[in-house]
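Exercise: predict the fold of this chain.
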Amino acid sequence: MKYWITLLYIIVSYTADAQLPVPASGKIVRHENFSSVFVTSRHIDVWLPEGYDNKKKYAVLYMHDGQMLYDANTTWNKQEWGVDETLTLLKQNKKMRECIVVGVWNGGPTRHADYFPQKPFESLGANQKELLYTAVRNSGQSVFQGFEINSDNYLRFLVKELKPFIDKTYSTYSDRANTFIAGSSMGGLISMYALCEYPEIFGGAACLSTHWPGIFNMENNPLPDAFISYLKAFLPSEKNHKIYFDTGDQTLDALYPPIQKRVDDVMKARGYTKKHWITKYDPGADHSENSWKKRLDIPLAFLLK
């Protein structure tokens, strides 16, 4: 118990003192330690484009791992998504509608538990669940770090607490056709899950380097099958939803192409065509913000066309 109290203190202290990102364009508004009854409190960094005007309305893009989006000077690995630069360029070239970005910080040690799709997990047997909860990374660190999977509550936080606050605080279009969600790796998984669980809320999802293995070992891993079965059952209609997937083939991304091909087969079987679905293969790309930054314009232009 003392260990967890100390860890929580460290997390809260770090979050409270975190440096505000400096975007290349537009403005960042931080809502510090946004409280929730569903998940741990976390920063919300909202990006507003140049010339943001309360007399206009904007589409909204919700993005996971919000601390990694805007400014490499404030991130742990000195990399960033370059969201502000990419959106500004797309808007200047008239390739997308105007939007704001809601950067939702991850919960640190709760990240994997928050982002891991819950219903596919619950479809597993008891022994399979135990195998996952005891899984470790290559470093030997526990994958779930003692936290139970909490993604259904994470989505409730987004939909029932955060979205109403954003729509009340900012000048937004609140309908499905103007509400999108995006992330990478585990953030890709939770974006897929959000679209399937709340198809009336989200009109599209961008899932970059989606972490289909769920953990970090493919041996006797039941998760790809569970995720694919879930998609077969819950993938929303292609008529009013868009979904983007991609993968590289280096570092962690090397695990993804065979599974992504199986997912693509599900998409085709469900009637998705290039009008509402893109899967991009980026050979030579690794699992990093630098790689996602290079191809971010593709999903953003696709969702926000």
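Check your answer against the key: The CA atoms of residues 101 and 135 lie 34 Å apart.
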